[in-house]
Amino acid sequence: MAALPDGTPLYIGLMSGTSADGIDAALVAFPAAPDGPRCRLLAGHTHPWEPSLRAALVALGEGREAGSLDVLGDLDARVGIAFAEAANTLLARHDIAATQVRAIGSHGQTVRHRPLATPAFTWQMGDANRIAEATGITTVADFRRRDIAAGGQGAPLMPAFHLAMLGSGEEDRAVLNLGGIGNLTLIPSAGTVRGFDTGPANALMDSWCQRHTGHAFDAEGAFAASGQVLPALLAQWLAEPWFRLPPPKSTGREQFHLDWALAAPAAAGAAPADLQATLLALTVETVVEALQAHQPATRRVLVCGGGVRNPVLMAALAARLPAVGVESSQAHGLDPDYMEAMGFAWLAAQTLAARPGNLPSVSGARGPRILGAIHLA
Question: Which helix (DSSP H) or strand (DSSP E) does residue 329 occupy?
Fold first, then answer.
């Protein structure tokens, strides 16, 4: 790890997304030099979930009942412990003392997201008290609920970070995060930034791949590439009313899970590889339709999240967007695997500086808000 000027503030971002495929921990610097990089990833680590804990979180995220308050309390504590382990492992591997880190920004693990309920709510597990206690580092967490309280969707939260890091006055850009759920940040060369979820991405493909191959994800997109897209099934999925909702909008496993996918009549009897190919096509079509509807002049799509490692998915996106440059965020100095974790480090810095972390044009909140709760070391 390259040396930094003395006094450079360090932060850790902790993130586990809809796929719950691991806890991403990013050690980030925000150099003070005005001509320096706006954000610098110093080190990253993906911490595995204990299998039974991951299974419980995925089941809860898909809408299944937890059973009791004791179960929920146990899960919240165990997730907090796991997040602390991810941070401590990152520090130990790179010989960084906890005293060198200004704060941790922890997203937690979303187990329910109901922005359209009355009253709206969202819940990310992972007791931040345990993270602060186990690491000795001030921890900022619970970022989404203030935006919800202010009338917003509580998601997506990354557009403010994307704007700060990847904004350009020269072209209309989009940042596409292909995590468990796909989401877009639309950054016009001039005008208002918008952002919203587009629908399922890796979560459904991973679940189907796990069920039929035993592998946690479709490495290199090989499973999807071995099948054929089923037009009738794709059309039935695209008829889902959620896709026609106007932004702001957000979603999660409670909306898009395998039971939802398999309820489509054309899914009955489909060959597993064909269904996987059609799930991939669903991700592509929902992204393309969203771009065409909301920022048709987009000239560059910067992709981050696990989907950037799927060459079949990336090639399909490029084929559907022939006039648009589709490229990894790495081309602009931001590691696509740790983009969201870096974003929560940035949000922690915003909170401690008493600066807003949301964009009302994205979430629909009544105004800018300082996000998160601070748990002092």
Answer: none
- Three-state secondary structure call for residue 271: coil
The set of residues, in sequence order, having a beta carbon less than 8 Å from that of 278 and lying 6+ positions away, is 227, 229, 230, 233, 234, 237, 270
What's this model's pTM, rounded to 2 decimal places?
A: 0.92
- Three-point CA angle 80, 165, 148, nearest 5°: 50
Secondary element (H or E) of residue 309: none
pLDDT for res 144: 98
Task: Say which residue the tokens 């309280």 belong to.
Answer: 149
- Per the CB < 8 A criterion, the answer to whether 195 and 174 are in contact is no
CB 375 within 8 A of CB 14: no
Q: Are 357 and 369 in contact (CB under 8 A)?
A: yes
d(CA 164, CA 366): 21
Tokens 């810095």 locate to 349
Q: Averaged in consecutive runs of 10 residues, what is the pLDDT profile of the chain (377 residues)?
A: 70 93 95 62 97 92 83 96 98 96 97 94 97 98 98 96 90 96 96 96 96 95 98 98 96 93 98 98 98 97 96 98 96 93 96 97 97 98
Question: What pLDDT, on the 0 to 100 scale, is given for residue 1?
Answer: 62
Cβ proximity of 18 and 61 under 8 Å: yes
* Residue 12, token pair as written in the block: 């850790």
* Residue 310, Cβ density class (10 Å: 0-12 exposed, 13-18 middle, ≥19 buried): buried
CA 44 to CA 213: how far, in whole Å? 29
Residue 340 has phi, psi (to 5 degrees) of: -70, -40
Pairing verdict, β 121-125 and 173-178 = unpaired
